[in-house]
Amino acid sequence: MSKNKTVKPDPNQKVKIISLGGLYEIGKNTWVYECGNDIVLVDAGLAFPTTDMIGVDIVLPKLNYIIENKDRIRALIITHGHEDHIGGVVPLLREVNVPIIYSPPLALGLLKSKFADGDIQDQATIQITDREVVEVGEHFRFQYIRNNHSIADSFSLIIDTPAGRVVHSGDFKFDHSPIDGKFFDIAPLAKAGEDGVALLISDSTNAEKASYTPSEKAVIPKLKDIIVNSKRRCYITTFASQVHRVKLIVELVIASGKKLALFGRSMINLAAISKDLGYINFPEDFVVRQEDVGKVPPGELVILSTGSQGEQFAALSRIARKEHKYLKVEPGDTVVMSSSPIPGNEKSVNNLINLLSASGGEVIYGAGQSVHVSGHASREEQKLLLSLAQPEFFMPCHGEYRMLVKHGETGVDCGVDPEKILLMDNGDVLELQDGKCKVIDKVEAGIIMVDNANVGELDTSIMLERRLVASEGMLTIVMILNAYGEIMGETKIYSRGIVLAAKEKALLDTIEANGGKLNIKEAFHHKIVEIATEAVDKSPHNPHGSAEKKMTEKLDLAKLEMDVKSEIHRFVDDKMHRHPLLEVIVMEYTGKPAASVLGA
Predict the structure, then answer these.
(1) What pLDDT is attached to residue 548?
(2) pLDDT tens-digit map of 512-522
(3) Which of 151, 154, 155 shows the shortest CA–CA distance to 142?
């Protein structure tokens, strides 16, 4: 590292800038900067699954382009420690070798914890400080500029390249009374703007919000009042990584004379790391062990918990469902949602609030309650950054499409030529040459799902199957045929999650044929057996007929299954208007049973 090297402009050099995540969405921020034989990555984040991604824990960007060019990777630059910027680092390191990771102190502490959990050993890292310069390869010079955000040690980047200067904002806001007393370091940005910025890439999360984002200190009066005056247990949930908020809550609880209990693995880990690094300080006997919360009078205990986004298995969700070993919300308790829903999580958060309210607790949430402020810049602050950087070209990032559009309009208001506003999608390749930008190509970009700690490429057919099972149920038919195509034994039917009405007209003939003794589910199963049996008998792929034909033709199980599946679909879809996930299993009995499975 050095503070003296300058990158000489070269009109023949080209820099490619690619986002693999973070455009048209919130989350999985992962950037590729490429020049000559050098590739530098900026952040490697994750996103939370949408409600239709059933069983998916987290979502990662597709890394095909990085993997294809792994031999040219020189470094990974981390801007701050939020999961949407560092949550994909361990999966990345399992795919490619990153020679060195540069990171601010808190993010590095969080990363080292992830390395230990993920069995990542001997990864080279370097901790950076304010205004420190990182030289990578032959073509890149990164300067870290402290900004304000909802986590300590958050930075913007001034990136010098032979093709022009780029300012990469990271997540930011301008807090004029920050909790840690560390202000946005605007002087280097102003100097960069005066010297010339070819491209500004900037956070668009709050582009639709006018005015300024309030200071983190704005939540102190209301949180203090709630903590001091709560007569029973006070539950507070926020992002574990929102270190300034956690620090503030800890200090308010200490001042109130009450005790604190931490619930949720990420909250416990972050508190321990932040305490070790000196970001949060509290006495050893201040935090109550989970198993001892019942020993503390309800009015003297504050519970700080994960689950602010309604995550199914987070601590607060389990508490709300009365599934937690040590806690449940009771009448008179107070629950503070010190957060706002990430776009796409609104339904989960609302469901959580409903559950908590039904338990009798007073739930305090929403913008008007003064218990949460954003860590992202609103429109006037975005204008300030644009005015400082004075970019020739402007790319809004970190936001859904409407946010990017609104931020682009703000750029025009600040003097950027409308033709030089770059609304790009993940995978678009931006080329910077001699201070000019243009989109030249597109690389593969998509999503990878992480399901129960197993990483695999998101398969739309798998998601369709899961949605079908969740919404329509599942129907399975198991049949055994001998070598002559004759059904042996009893055909088995298994149905799960299929709701049947007592007046299903399509089943009445079956019920009547059995003397009306079958219930609706039994009648349904009986009808499916009839259809499957008839389909086997009529199938052109069944060697039935003369004895000579039976001896010379062989069962075609795959085609038989298709015939059975087709007939059952015709009945269930056309007559019952149901669409369950259908699975047909046909086994041939030869003394050594073999199975073939056909999914819907």
Answers:
(1) 45
(2) 555 566 777 88
(3) 155
